[in-house]
Amino acid sequence: MSYPGSGNTWTRILLEDITGIYTGSIYRDGSLTRGGFKGEGTNPMKGQTMIVKSHFPSNQKVMHAAKAIIFVVRNPFDAIIAEYKRRRGHGHTSVVSEKVFKDKMWLGNAPRWLDGWGRLAKNVTSIAAANNLPLHVYSFEQLKENPTYEMEKVLNFLEDAIDWKPDNRYKRLKCLGELQKAATSFKREKTPPSFEYYTPEMIEIGNKAIQEVHKNLLEAGFDVFDVEEYLRSS
């Protein structure tokens, strides 16, 4: 479970690497299927995949069938920009002009999206508690800093929550670590934005959501991000 733009595709790649099992989705994204996600087009209720992607806990059938929840958190200001670029670029790897951050779609919807980021986190913790579902939370920033360590914690969670573990756990984690070391050599530097995409009013909404979510996650036993690093100056 995660808000759109929280590194979902990358997370699924890592999960498939360490488990050896395809990840599924309640959506049917043809571009992901063509990109190698064989579990994308499968019915999540058929049991062909172990981990199923969802952005919103609105699919009651899937939620009732869930044995546990993995929730990925990302700075909402970054997540919403990433998702908006994907929408406007019509793809997961497209490049868009900064002009889209001055149009009506952005100015009219960004405040609602920031508020929605906060509501999702509250819904996830509430659903987990109400249904007695094991919950694991980590941040995109933690995953980016140390993918192997965070995936090892996911394996620990899967073993505790649903009594599952890969036979070749050590080899998979070692291989993942080596792949990540090699990948760092090919990362491109991001070009910083030429202007602030968020208005002062948007920033106020986002900062309020960040503080509320951090408090909510702490109460649920998860300290996965630094509030000061998430907050944005107006």
Automatic annotation (TrEMBL):
UniProt keyword Transferase, yes or no: yes
A Pfam family this chain is assigned to: Sulfotransfer_1
InterPro entries noted in UniProt: P-loop_NTPase (IPR027417), Sialate-O-sulfotransferase (IPR051589), Sulfotransferase_dom (IPR000863)
Alphabetically ordered keywords of this record: Transferase
GO MF, one example: sulfotransferase activity
Species for this entry: Oikopleura dioica
Family statement drawn from the similarity comment of this UniProt entry: Belongs to the sulfotransferase 1 family. Belongs to the WSCD family.
PANTHER family linked to this entry: WSCD FAMILY MEMBER CG9164
Name of the featured protein: Sulfotransferase
EC number: 2.8.2.-
Domain Sulfotransferase: 49-163
